[in-house]
Design a protein that fits this description.
Order of helices and strands: HHH
Strand content: under 5%
Largest sheet: none
Number of domains: 1
CATH topology: Non-ribosomal Peptide Synthetase Peptidyl Carrier Protein, Chain A
Oligomer: single chain
Shape: globular
Helix content: 40-55%
Structural class: mainly alpha
CATH architecture: Orthogonal Bundle
Radius of gyration: 12 Å
CATH class: Mainly Alpha
Number of strands: 0
Number of helices: 3
């Protein structure tokens, strides 16, 4: 799975949790907070994304990420490590 596919998975989950959000606002430079996601929304989005990517790790590892691009890079790295690439 490439980084674009990871971003698509994240975006799909953001739009599911925040149905009134304009899809055009979901860009790599945005943070979930910028998009109006509260802490529960953010946790839901992260858990849904982890499940869809079949990843397991402590959510605390995501604490330092600033935007969606950081999340994409982090999750893509986890996928590569998991698949032994």
């Amino acid at each position: 799975m490439n980084k674009q596919e990871v971003f698509v998975a994240i975006k799909r989950n953001i739009l599911e949790v925040l149905p009134g959000l304009d899809e055009g606002r979901v860009v790599p430079e945005a943070s979930m907070r910028d998009l109006g996601a509260n802490s529960i929304d953010r946790a839901d989005i992260l858990i849904m994304t982890m499940e869809s990517l079949r990843l397991k790790f402590p959510l605390a590892e995501l604490g330092s990420l600033k935007n969606l691009q950081g999340l994409v890079d982090f999750l893509h790295g986890k996928l590569l490590a998991q698949n032994g690439a």
